[in-house]
Amino acid sequence: MNARKSLALATATMALGGGLALAPAAGAAEAGSGDSAAAAAPTCRQDSITVPSDRGAVAYWECRRKVNNKWQSSVQIWVYDKKADGKCVYGHVKIGGWYKAYKACPKGNNVRGARTGWHNGYDAQVWMTIR
Predict the structure, then answer these.
(1) Taking burial as the number of CB atoms within 10 A of a residue's CB, which of 22, 55, 60, 97 is the most buried?
(2) To 5 degrees, how large is the angle CA 46–CA 33–CA 79?
């Protein structure tokens, strides 16, 4: 996984201050793919990104599979704004040529388990910004 982690790494439990139950994006995302019959079973892994000041957090699952000899990746992402400072926390996901930013703000208005769907590319890049 080539996640751009310009901020400190931690486990999802520590990053989010409690027992967050993360589930792989594979099942629901596969339903939307027209070629799921030709897809190999996806493999998934969990990761998280935090900042030392506890201003925000991003946790995610990344899954990948091979469809018709092409690699695809999918991400399920949680983005948390933990501080009422007028800034937003963004969780960015890039898979191949596909990109999306998920925004959480103000404090308490969070992104919970958003799914990217499957996109061509072996590896998802996930990073967090606060602005």
Answers:
(1) 60
(2) 35
Backbone CA torsion sign across 38, 67, 43, 36: negative
- Cβ neighbors of 28 (< 8 A, separation 6 or more) are 115
SS3 label, residue 5:
coil
Token pair belonging to 46: 């969990």
Using DSSP, state whether 127 is helix, strand or coil. strand
Q: Give pLDDT tens digits for 18-32.
A: 333 344 444 433 333
Q: Is the pLDDT of residue 49 over 80?
A: no
CA 39 distance to own-chain centroid: 21
d(CA 115, CA 2): 19
User: 124 CB contacts (<8 Å, ≥6 apart)?
Assistant: 1, 3, 62, 73, 74, 75, 93, 94, 95, 116
One-letter amino acid identity for 47? D
pLDDT digits (tens, 9 = 90+) for 29-47: 333 344 455 667 888 988 7
Which residue type does 19 have?
G
